[in-house]
Amino acid sequence: MSIAPAELTDRLGRWSAGRGPLYLLLAAQLRRLIDEGELPPGTALPPDRAFASALAVGRGTVVAAYEQLRVECRIIRRQGSGTRVAGPSRPEPRPTTGSPVFLHLLEPQDDDVILLACAAPASPPPILLSAYERALSQLATITSDIGYHPSGLWQLRRAVADHYTHRGLPTDPDQVLITNGGQQALSLLARAFVEPGGTVVVEAPTYPGALEAFREQTASLQTLPVGLDGFESAARAARGPDLAYLVSTHHNPTGAVLPSLLRRRLAVAAAHADVLLIDDEVLAHLAFPGQRIPPPVAAFGATVVSVGSLSKSVWGGLRIGWIRAARRVIDRLARLRAVHDLGGNLPAQLAAAYLLPRLEGLCQDIAADRQTRHDHLRAELARRLPQWQAPPVTGGQTLWVRLPHGDGDSFSQTALRHGVAVLPGSGLDASGGSKEFIRIHFLATPDTLSEAVHRLTTAWHAYGDGHDGGAPAPRSMAI
Questions:
Q1: Side-by-side strand order, sheet with 398-402
Q2: Which residue range(s) make up the domain with 40?
Q3: pTM score, whole prediction
Q4: 388-424 b/e with 16+ CB inside 10 Å = b?
């Protein structure tokens, strides 16, 4: 299937009406058509020159836009065969794991598929039920509150502020904005501080949801190694970045923890360049027993913005996140948030206010069990797939696994056909790298992890033999 230049131009609408470089505006509109399914996988896109003529722009604009989408793995460009939307050109027996990866992971999957891609607690802990019972009793006493709190319930803002103060970062409640999860926090920051065509410095690899939030604002993503090595030079550039994004603790996906000295260097560099540095702390509390976590990056600099959430430490269905930043930043974000959302769910915020003072103890209670599952998964991989490299981590939820050959994109499709969903590394890397990696989590029970590795082993043998399109092997256990 192919689409004519004139037809595609019509579908783009007023694509050039925004601000920023034309190639980024064009890439943004094409990305939207791809992600919303208007340009299905396998669709042949117009040649560079013909498309440029239809758009009345230079060929370089089309080439640059196509290259941006190629790096994001949304299109495939091959010499002699043109440009196509990434993915199979005809329906597969199971859904794919193509971009945007973080959206696909939230869709329902077949019951017999073991999900090792999306890392989050599988069920709410008992303490959450107690928190909601307490919240409902508090709701019964409210008589003069209409329930709109655009910046968040003051009681919860105070709990978040006390949480940071306890960690060595003195914080007032008016330095806190409550959001509907960490993803909304990142989206608000991108909308508020990224100019169209502006630059955001990110790690390669990193959390894919952050990449999507920045791309939504037609940002140009500049990649640096994990830990933002080289950030000082990037921040001092003639036209410095609009934002920088970092996962400093139990990095997603590698599990790395940035030492205190490097945290200080990044915070000082950001302050000197007047660049907002986002420190994503959603995984910060998930250390294994005996592991000491350095202070928040924000403890070393006033231009650091901390983002947190209860989705990984408590439950993903509790849509409570927050932003901790300077008052001027919070004020700007609160005005923007009110335009899109007059306030979050009040019962959930009351429950979260009860949970925050107990969060450290809750995470400690489950730390040993998570380490046991981490060790079990690594042992099973070492026994059945010794060629795979799966370095240990000191916390978090995932392993960053390097395949000895092939690529994560094609192997993830093979694995899915054999009943396991894994996350290909390319979707987490804005530089176009990490193709030889996959990300898998270790939150499942030991029995489920053993069965998952069994299926991955079968898939790997099929993949290595070039039979990845065949039928899956029989399952030895129903999940």
A1: 398-402, 437-441, 423-424
A2: 5-85
A3: 0.82
A4: bebeebbbbbbbbbebeeebbbebbbbbbbbbbbbbb
